[in-house]
Amino acid sequence: MKKRIAEAYSADSPIYYICYNRPTFKEIHEPCHKLMYILEGRITMQTSQVQVASRAGEYMFAGKGDFSRIRTYPSAGGLFRMICFNITDKDVKSYLQYNLCPSVAEYSPVILRKLENRKLLELLFSPVV
After folding, report:
1. How far apart are CA 69 and CA 54, in angstroms?
2. Backbone angles phi, psi at 67, to 5 degrees
3. Interacting residues of 87 by C-beta distance below 8 A, sequence separation 6+
4. Res 7: pLDDT
5. Rg, the chain, Cα only
6. First CA to last CA across the chain, in angstroms?
7. Residue 40 burial (C-beta neighbours within 10 Å; 0-12, 13-18, 19+)
8. Measured between alpha carbons, how far is 48 from 76 in angstroms, rounded to an integer?
């Protein structure tokens, strides 16, 4: 039985990297918001409200507080690789303290979604691509 290759992660890591050479399945409670970039392979995440699939070159956002079922699949003959940024409440409060934000009349939490490619996201992840 082959073991996963690498998972560089700790609960307080602001950034972490995951690399698997076989399909994997995990069930986790999201302790903070996550911004993810899939480097290779594909991933499916399911919460109580939505399921999102993403593949290499795509970005995903997962909101904190929900339970997620995560399946990863390596590319044909390759790996599954992903880099993830944890965004804590402290990060959000710090950002809001120094940036003016318009008031929001109606708030709806974002649990899980695929993000469109944007130049800012490309720049954020450019050192790892």
Report:
1. 14
2. -90, 130
3. 32, 33, 34, 35
4. 65
5. 15
6. 30
7. middle
8. 30
For residue 4, count other CB atoms closer than 10 A to its CB. Answer: 14
- The answer to whether the CB of 42 falls within 8 A of the CB of 114 is no
Please tell me which residue, 2 or 6, carries the higher pLDDT value. 6
Reported as a single tens digit per residue, the pLDDT across 48-102 is 888 999 999 999 988 888 788 999 999 998 999 999 988 888 877 777 677 666 5
DSSP the chain: -PPP-EEE--TT-SEEEEEESS-EEEEEE--SEEEEEEEESEEEEE-SS-EEEEETT-EEEE-TT-EEEEEEEPPTTS-EEEEEEEE-HHHHHHHHHHS-----SS-----EEEEPP-HHHHHHHTTT-
Based on the number of CB atoms within 10 Å of its own CB, is 97 exposed (0-12), middle (13-18) or buried (19 or more)?
exposed
- Alpha carbon 102 to its chain centroid, in Å, reads 26
